[in-house]
Description:
The protein has 224 residues and is α/β, with parallel strands linked by helices.
Amino acid sequence: MIKVLVADDQELIRQSLRIILSSKKNFEVTDTVENGQEVIKSVRKNSPDVVLMDIRMPKMDGVQCTRIIKENRPEIKIIILTTFDDDEYVYNALKFGASGYLLKGVSMDDLSNAIETVYSGRALINPDIAAKVVRLFSQMAKADFTIPVVKNGVKELTRTEWKIIRQVENGASNKEIAETLNLSDGTVRNYISTVLNKLELRDRTQLAIWAVQTGVDKKDLGKT
């Protein structure tokens, strides 16, 4: 059972999400709240697995909530759900540790899949803003925001793992990586998990940022 906290300043959206998610046997809605301060209180009280959170809320917005939650409860997964796709919001939500970023209007099946995806430790970004996120990675690579990795882990990366990192850097999904490298989806997932463990990174978002910062796209894989 995946425990979900719903945070949105619109009552209709909160109650609709509660009804729909509660109807699914693998979800339990622990609470619905309308502002950022209530999010923090509810997290402390109910310890949800996943927070489904709007960006623009009174008293404290979703970006600041994400920062506070991930600093204190890094195991909790956060999906940003919003009608806004501003660069600043995407950048900050991902920088502070959000595992997913979806635009409102996504189907309930896609939303359910997204919750299950981030709960399993993977990241998920709406295809409509994937290109925007890749551009942001490039900007972040030029900024004073570096992703630390284990140097010995970098030395242990295989040629295939470098190829997969390059695909992640370009924003490719597991399915797209599998098709490009002639691998199965499961094999790609296993490779990415191994890479994250070697580098001691949290998720593929951090991996993509690190790849941009280190210029993986320019790496000669023939000599790896």
